[in-house]
Design a protein that fits this description.
Bound molecules: N-[2-(1H-imidazol-4-yl)ethyl]acetamide, zinc ion
Strand content: 15-25%
Largest sheet: 6 strands, mixed
Structural class: alpha/beta
Order of helices and strands: HHHEEEHEHEHHHEEEH
């Protein structure tokens, strides 16, 4: 349901309730408060503190760089969290070759809610960290791994909180949450060196290759301070209707400042691999026209100090309303 309709129903319910109240004071039985449509359940509250805890937990493992213990242990934890929230979890394990020849032991982790529902929405984020802070202003830090508090952990954290809400709400929607690996071991000027996990996923789709969600929504860098989520070029070409609906939902929920309804830029990211394989997909990413990504992008400052829970809330509540208002 769109937010306008949702709002209209809320207004209808409120006036029905106040009429019932007047009737009651007038000595009549409070007419049919039971006639309130069952379709008026407000969307669940997306808890920013809970999302922040999911984010911090990932950062506390250390940089989730492929082939490290922090990465391996985080992958196990992510699968167990999805399971705990009621998803049917599958893992794709693959050894992927990076542009520099490194063999990456990668795992894509998917949790499926209501797996027998035909219509499916795919929510995704990458969970790996970049091994190099090569955008850091201090060139001595370029070989340090990033904490990936924003670039990696934020999207995963929002989706784990949504997983919790799917379970809590008892939603019957077909929703899949996918944590992609090996997004961030890429190099400039080689688009295919990024999103290796997404490329593997598209070459090995679930359901024997027949998996076709009706919409896919990628979250990337959704926890920064002063974040700006403009409309993204490839998303706009692939799925303008989905983008319209998500941006309208954000506006209706009061998050229009985070989601200005104008074009940002063209971003090479996991969603492009989905689009190339025929899945309509959009990217919600902090990309500021003229300035580029969040200033902590691929720097050692991509840490907990530069996370704003209010940004997690804006994105998470928008997505929650889009998916779970009914
Ligand atoms: C490029 O820099 C070509 N793509 C960036 C996609 C990305 C990296 N998202 C997060 N980290
Ligand atoms: Zn990155």
């Amino acid at each position: 349901m769109n937010m306008k309709l949702y709002r209209r129903i809320v207004v209808a319910v409120l006036s029905a309730l106040s009429l019932a109240g007047c009737a009651a004071t007038g000595g009549k039985a409070a007419a049919d408060s039971t006639a309130v449509e069952p379709e008026t359940v407000p969307p669940p509250v997306f808890e920013a503190d809970s999302a922040y805890a999911y984010l911090k937990r990932q950062v506390d493992f250390g940089p989730r760089v492929p082939n490290t213990d922090a990465h391996r242990l985080t992958g196990q934890w992510l699968a167990s969290e999805l399971t705990r929230h009621g998803a049917v979890v599958t893992e794709q394990k693959a050894t992927l070759t990076a542009f520099d020849g490194t063999q990456l032991m990668a795992t894509n982790i998917m949790g499926r809610f209501n797996p027998s529902a035909d219509d499916r929405v795919l929510l995704l984020a990458h969970w790996d960290c970049r091994p190099w802070a090569d955008e850091d202003p201090d060139s001595k830090r370029h070989n340090d791994a990033v904490d990936g508090a924003n670039d990696g952990a934020s999207g995963v954290a929002v989706l784990l909180e949504i997983a919790r809400l799917i379970k809590e709400s008892g939603s019957s929607r077909g929703i899949d949450i996918l944590f992609l690996d090996a997004e961030d071991w890429g190099t400039t000027n080689d688009d295919d060196s990024w999103a290796l996990g997404a490329q593997y996923f598209m070459a090995h789709l679930p359901d024997g290759g027949n998996y076709r969600p009706s919409a896919a929504i990628l979250l990337d860098m959704v926890g920064g301070k002063n974040a700006t989520f403009c409309r993204e070029y490839f998303s706009q070409k692939s799925a303008p209707g989905i983008a319209d609906a998500v941006w309208a939902t954000a506006r209706a929920a009061g998050y229009g400042d985070y989601f200005p309804n104008r074009m940002g830029g063209a971003v090479t990211d996991d969603h492009v691999k989905l689009i190339e394989g025929g899945i309509p997909a959009i990217d919600i990413i902090d990309y500021r026209p003229g300035d580029g990504f969040n200033p902590t992008w691929h720097t050692v400052s991509d840490n907990l100090d530069n996370i704003d829970p209010a940004t997690l809330k804006a994105v998470g509540q928008t997505l929650t309303n889009y998916l779970l208002a009914h």
